[in-house]
Amino acid sequence: MVKSPFDCIFPFNRSKKPTSEPQKCYPLLKLSGETRIRLRELASPLEAYNLQRADIDQTMNLVPFQYTIRGHFRVDEFGLHRRAPIGKTALVVDSNTLYTAETLEICNITFDNPIFGHLILNSSHLTFTSCNLDQRFLDALKLRLTGTCFNLKLQFCNLPEPNTLTKLAEAVPSANMVYIQLRNCENWYSIVLNANKTWTFKVELHGTLEDILRDITIEDFCKLLNTDYFGTFTLEFHIQPETATWEDTEAVLVSYFDGHFRSTEFVGAFYAGLKVIVQNEEHFYTLIEQSNRPKRHNVSAANKGCFDLWMLWHAND
Whole-model pTM above 0.70? Predict the structure, then answer.
């Protein structure tokens, strides 16, 4: 994060790492009146707001007084935008004002961006779009988040490590409903497996069927959809390319499932099951309990061989 001259004022807000020496705040009341005026001029809106919160008895006389505007915002490389109603153009908001984001979408930027000096993350809903959720990003998120965030949405973000979702749960411990969209499906299984087990959790995978199912056994796949592992977990396959047909997709799924799943009707936005979408055609599957599964015959092994052959055939497409 960018170093600030106000580190001496609120060091506990800047770093939560334990130190051998106790951190001390500078006694601002010892500054002259002119120095305090200059301090207020140099402060970003967020820093001025934090000074005002610390000045409970209003003895520092920091003017002008820093007000905040609450709303729903989106921040990207072009600045901070107020989320507009559907059909209307979003307006770029004044960067000299401090804003409290009740809901916020962060698009392809990091917290080093100076725009976050004008923004209070008191958000119950957070959306990350095309962000790189590395350790530095998650540490900054944990540091800046001031409110209780219940809902998280990750839209085609980079999740660099298998335990990224574990670290995300540590950064936002209050989250209980999480929605993830992934386009790169290579490591999705190991990433999802490390998610918080208490989440109401939905994962949407965009890609070819062979990429989604590659190197994942049916036993591992069943583990995810077992309600004993995740409380409420929905998995969606958005099959590509656009030329894919449901007939071909269904044949491969039936072979892969090998009697572990059955087709079902739509039962809600979040449920323990699988949703497959091919050319806007939706189909739903749920895991069959072990005691209710049909007995396996040699035909199952044949189906498994057909699936392996199909995967091999498309491996070099």
Answer: yes
